[in-house]
TrEMBL record, chain A:
Protein name, UniProt field: Aldehyde dehydrogenase 3 family member B2
One GO CC term, this protein: cytoplasm
PANTHER family according to UniProt: ALDEHYDE DEHYDROGENASE, ALDEHYDE DEHYDROGENASE FAMILY 3 MEMBER B2
Positions of the catalytic residues: E129
Sequence similarity: Belongs to the aldehyde dehydrogenase family.
Species this protein is from: Macaca nemestrina
Superkingdom in the source lineage: Eukaryota
GO molecular function per UniProt: 3-chloroallyl aldehyde dehydrogenase activity; aldehyde dehydrogenase (NAD+) activity
Lineage: Eukaryota, Metazoa, Chordata, Craniata, Vertebrata
A single BP term in Gene Ontology: aldehyde metabolic process
TrEMBL record, chain B:
Aldehyde dehydrogenase domain ranges (all copies): 10-424
Biological process terms in GO annotation: aldehyde metabolic process; lipid metabolic process
Pfam families the UniProt entry points to: Aldedh
Higher taxonomy: Eukaryota, Metazoa, Chordata, Craniata, Vertebrata
Keywords: Lipid metabolism, NAD, Oxidoreductase
Signal sequence, start to end: none
Record-given protein name: Aldehyde dehydrogenase
CDD domains: ALDH_F3AB
GO MF term set: 3-chloroallyl aldehyde dehydrogenase activity; aldehyde dehydrogenase (NAD+) activity
Amino acid sequence: MKDEPGSTNLFTKLDSVFIRKEPFGLVLIIAPWNYPVNLTLVPLVGALAAGNCVVLKPSEISQGTEKVLAEVLPQYLDQSCFAVVLGGPQETGQLLEHRFDYIFFTGSPRVGKIVMTAAAKHLTPVTLELGGKNPCYVDDNCDPQTVANRVAWFRYFNAGQTCVAPDYVLCSPEMQERLLPALQSTITRFYGDDPQSSPNLGRIINQKQFQRLRALLGCGHVAIGGQSDESDRYIAPTVLVDVQETEPVMQEEIFGPILPIVNVRSVDEAIEFINRREKPLALYAFSNSSQVVNQMLERTSSGSFAGNDGFLYVSLLSVPLGGVGHSGMGRYHGKFTFDTFSHHRTCLLAPSGLEKLKEIRYPPYTDWNQQLLRWGMGSNSCTLL
Amino acid sequence: MDPFEDTLRRLREAFHMGRTRSAEFRAAQLRGLGRFLHENKQLLHDALAQDLHKSAFESELSEVAISQGEITLALRNLRAWMKDEHVPKNLATQLDSAFIRKEPFGLVLIIAPWNYPLNLTLVPLVGALAAGNCVVLKPSEISKSMEKVLAEVLPRYLDESCFAVVLGGPQETGKLLEHRFDYIFFTGSPRVGKIVMTAAAKHLTPVTLELGGKNPCYVDDNCDPQTVANRVAWFRYFNAGQTCVAPDYVLCSPEMQERLLPALQSTITRFYGDDPQSSPNLGRIINQKQFQRLRALLGCGHVAIGGQSDESDRYIAPTVLVDVQETEPVMQEEIFGPILPIVNVRSVDEAIEFINRREKPLALYAFSNSSQVVKRVLTQTSSGGFCGNDGFMHMTLASLPFGGVGASGMGQYHGKFSFDTFSHHRACLLRRPGMEKLNALRYPPHSPRRLRVLLVAMEARGCSCTLL
């Protein structure tokens, strides 16, 4: 919350110069269903810390959590400054007609556009945490078992319903040969021979998402898994091979426990493939060679990047989490959240007297005035102007 | 036939090929901008004189010098700004490399206004180029002379595979905005800001909008009227009032107004002589449309000082209006001209209430000998920027961010803030491919003990207050 001092030039040496953090006012947080506590509370922490009043619109899809957020959470906060509003797309649309001073949205790019368009009518700034298809490049120069462990953990966590999960693998046919048995081994290790009975595997949030995912199981060929159970909204940890770029599983964000493998012949081809598509929220590259990892990093763009692992960085509050392009705008976590929900107001407090010093800037002008002013404005040795 | 299609495709391809990535390339562009300013100084001064009757002093101070300063700052700091920022790690990532990498967005659109047509074009351009983007520049068609210089002369100093100037009015700009950009930087009115943001939303393009508002100027009873008059007048009549951060109206008590008026008259005479129209130091209104709009405002309240106008010269005298009602046009729209209305309030509380009933402005000013009064106004209001006891000097400091809030805008720039505005900050974590045993803790099947260990490992190192 502290004022941040700024550096001065010669003309402002006697002034107090600082950046003051101010709350925007009334903030709207629209939260998703996949991590309904985390993705509601973490933005809320920032909004409250920054001194805003908050309207929270939790997801109506994660009904269990919605109830707790609506009925229990307000009891712990000052309700003159905090409210939970409930509803589906129609109610949210009506809510968005109102004016807010900041809107923080987590969800799909499609709805992100709707939110930003509504915000534009009131010139309301926004942070949009969206999604995308997060590529996961696996180099030939790798230990397949290590890669399988890491990719599988991050893919099947929360039954794949994670915006930063690896969405698809890019690797050579040779690597694929080695990866498949390793992935099977990992899946068995993690979830047992009957994953449906493992306590460590999640379920799909609702029927609509389940049906969508079950349809994706028809793409390419099932190499591992492929089972589903409608009564349980269960989809087995699945790996698909022989998928075409045009198939639905390679067109939409999967958001489920299905991992397609797409073949490329080289890291260059992988980079080209990635760059033909929308910038993703996350990008992964696995290789024993740090050069290959760095090449991936240098020649692509994404919200965030991890070499040789999955989204462990979300646990690091010192890095900002956010998208770029279709995967979003703005960022948060830790201090970045506080800053997101604060207006940074530049302040200069000059003494009311000492008018003689200011005289130099007044007309009528002479060459001398001009020179002196130019010099004065440029006088700070590292901050010219 | 879409006039912009080819240009945009060409620039995207150049970006895709990686032309703008190296520090050397970017520095060369910035040096090109520097040479553009240096080699065309007279041409630029002439253009500003033609468009706005800017004096050499104003042109130099508020257009050329500021632009040059930003170029120099960027050149000096480019590599430091481009560097990966390493960040503190937790126990789980101790052996890893964790950093924030700055990346260009890609194809950036800068839409520039007419009031400081060189400064408000070049300063964002410096940031966009320093950050490694390809840039499409849409200068204002209203400041015609500068538009010509920017379209015909500026491109010669930059790599034209990565930079283009497009021309046109509202209709062409609308068509341009249908295209997809990776960032849009707009300076102009709130009304058009909404149009830009709505267009950007269709492509999920992030924006910075530098807009405007009515910037209040509170003048306390506890003041030296002459000092205040000097300071307020200079910032109000600079560029004939066509400044987004100029004090738009004064709030003071009737008693203060009595003392302020003669002081303002004295200041105006001192600055511009007995016949301001013949002073070389007073600008002119940009065009007929703005002139007519301003002339109509002269009918609000009563003219206390000035009030003369000359259509053939687009001249409006430095004017002070009194007895204005909140409902009159002069108190409804951003004035953007050399007219200063005074509105009476009986106390600083009433002033604050008045200010807070209205949209958050781009700038807010408070004059008082009492620092307590100044701080009270600061604390109880919000605005893009704030200055106590002076005008928009805060804008000359490139170490401070410049931007609006609410209807006065979103985002900020100047100095490093420009570079950051035009960069995507990409969180990066580089781990080792080996040492898989350490990861075993996180894999299922799980146990409560393992969970406890993991939670400790995720805690920020050495900071007991960051519990995840």
